[in-house]
């Protein structure tokens, strides 16, 4: 009965699932939660050099435990190496974005996070998104820089940069959220001896998401199946544009440009 | 390639980004950093969408991520406009200054003691005296001390 290719494939898929889920139990996740909470709390401002150092050590330990429990090699050496480098860069830059007290550094680390995410998109077969995210967010980061330089205290000496709002509550909340999400999908994917979740075969992928002419296919979907949504997104952008200019132009408590013009003054 | 492992790896990194963004949004007080944290939460969701799209061999995940980008752009426009207006009115990017917008029954948030700031005192090179000492006024002396 097992001679047919289809059931062979099913058996090998069950074996692959069993291999995928033979490690990473709740205990290690609990260890990662405790270490990560402590590390994040130590990293967040107000933090001196000693606090930052111990926070960094704890955070790296927590991420290493989580990675050992949850990250699974996909069976391609080059791919795994690329994924390890890019995900490490992304996560380290994300933690730094949140915890650095100088807003200029926050913006720079956020740009690094974006580069890591763009790389992750590229190796996951979303080439267009990998490029688009860099292009779109490059402008956003530039505007951030302008805002920080114009408005903020760019050296991070301001009191509100050196204090954070109840970090002993926020850090556990974020870390527990990550733990709950990882545990949930781990349990959902672990189908045991029954058939695993149906994933696309390599041939189907080569003819689908990973096919050549990626942008053409993506555009075909975007302007075919999702055409109405594109229109809605366009309306949303227009509304946001009008709203932003309305908010800035007619802020209450501020001498309004039109009132000034009515009084004959220069804006 | 083990597609299930691939999906799991992408979900892990997506949840991590979302969690860190959440922490930053909850406890940072600089409005610009809060905005960056909100963007990071959107990016975490985008990563899981792309992972699911590949798992199901469907372009829907990537298309939805494009829409997430559009919504992020709208959010950036409106949020930065609000930040600008709030800065004009309070003269600071501190979000605690706007805590009276919450329920009136809640007690006010009072700053803890600020950790002492170490301001580095600049050290200037001392040049050895040479030649005839010029006549200088005390005021000039004060100003030259830092040149």
Describe the structure.
The complex is a heterodimer of chains A (267) and B (147). Chain A is mainly alpha-helical and 267 residues long. Chain A is built from twelve helices and no strands. Chain A has helices spanning 5-20, 26-43, 49-70, 77-99, 103-123, 127-151, 159-162, 167-189, 202-206, 214-222, 227-249, 257-262. The longest helix of chain A has 25 residues, at 127-151. Residues 255-262 of chain A have low confidence and may be disordered. With 147 residues, chain B is an all-alpha fold. Chain B contains four helices and no strands. Chain B has helices at residues 3-27, 31-55, 60-90, 138-144. The longest helix of chain B has 31 residues, at 60-90. Classes of the chains: A mainly alpha (267), B mainly alpha (147). The interface between A and B is large, with 107 and 83 residues.
Compact summary:
The complex is a heterodimer of chains A (267) and B (147). Chain A is mainly α and 267 residues long.
Beta-strand content of chain A: under 5%
Report the major sheet of chain A. none
Secondary-structure-based class of chain A equals: mainly alpha
Tell me the greatest interface: A-B, 107 and 83 residues
Distance N to C terminus of chain A: 85 Å
Helix content of chain B: 55-70%
**Gyration radius over CA of chain B:** 27 Å
The helix/strand order of chain B is: HHHH
Poorly predicted parts of chain B: none
Name the average pLDDT of chain B.
Answer: 86
Write down the overall mean pLDDT of chain A: 83
Structural category of chain B is mainly alpha
Strand content of chain B: under 5%
């Amino acid at each position: 009965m097992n001679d047919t290719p289809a059931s062979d494939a099913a058996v090998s898929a069950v074996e692959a699932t069993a291999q995928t889920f033979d490690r990473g139990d709740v205990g290690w996740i609990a260890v990662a939660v405790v270490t990560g909470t402590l590390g994040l709390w130590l990293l967040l401002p107000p933090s001196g050099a000693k606090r930052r150092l111990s926070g960094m050590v704890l955070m790296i330990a927590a991420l290493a435990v989580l990675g050992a429990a949850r990250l699974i090699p996909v069976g391609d050496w080059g791919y795994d190496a690329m994924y390890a480098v890019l995900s490490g860069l992304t996560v380290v830059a994300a933690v730094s974005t949140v915890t650095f007290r100088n807003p200029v550094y926050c913006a720079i680390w956020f740009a690094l996070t974006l580069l890591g995410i763009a790389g992750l998109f590229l190796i996951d077969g979303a080439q267009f998104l990998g490029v688009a995210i860099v292009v779109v967010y490059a402008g956003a980061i530039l505007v951030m820089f302008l805002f920080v330089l114009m408005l903020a205290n760019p050296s991070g000496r301001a009191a509100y940069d050196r204090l954070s709002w109840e970090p002993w509550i926020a850090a556990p909340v974020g870390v527990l959220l990550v733990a709950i999400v990882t545990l949930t999908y781990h349990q959902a994917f672990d189908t045991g001896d029954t058939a695993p979740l149906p994933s696309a075969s390599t041939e189907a992928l080569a003819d689908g998401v990973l096919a050549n002419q990626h942008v053409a296919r993506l555009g075909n979907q975007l302007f075919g199946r999702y055409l109405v949504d594109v229109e809605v997104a366009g309306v949303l952008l227009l509304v946001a544009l009008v709203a932003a200019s309305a908010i800035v132009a007619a802020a209450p408590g501020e001498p309004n440009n039109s009132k000034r013009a009515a009084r004959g003054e220069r804006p | 390639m083990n597609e299930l492992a691939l999906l799991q790896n992408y979900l892990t990194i997506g949840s991590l980004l979302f969690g860190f963004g959440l922490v930053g949004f909850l406890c940072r007080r600089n409005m610009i950093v809060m905005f960056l944290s909100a963007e990071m939460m959107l990016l975490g969701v985008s990563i899981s969408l792309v992972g699911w799209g590949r798992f199901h061999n469907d372009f829907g995940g990537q298309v939805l991520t494009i829409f997430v980008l559009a919504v992020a752009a709208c959010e950036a426009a409106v949020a930065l406009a609000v930040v600008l207006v709030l800065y004009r009115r309070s003269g600071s990017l501190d979000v605690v200054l706007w805590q009276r917008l919450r329920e009136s029954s809640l007690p006010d948030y009072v700053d803890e003691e600020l950790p002492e700031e170490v301001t580095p005192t600049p050290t200037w090179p001392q040049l050895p005296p040479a030649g005839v000492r010029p006549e200088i006024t005390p005021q000039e002396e004060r100003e030259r001390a830092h040149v």
